[in-house]
Amino acid sequence: MQDDNSHAPNTPLARYIEQLRAMEIDIEAMDAQAARIRQDNLEFVLVVATDEPAFFQLMLPGVWQAAAATNRTLLLETANDVMNTLKAAKLVVHNEAVHVSVEQFVEGPDQGVALIPGLLELLKSAVAEFQERLGMGEAPRVH
Question: How far are the Cα atoms of 41, 79, 120 from residue 12, in angstroms, in the given order?
Answer without folding.
Answer: 26, 31, 19
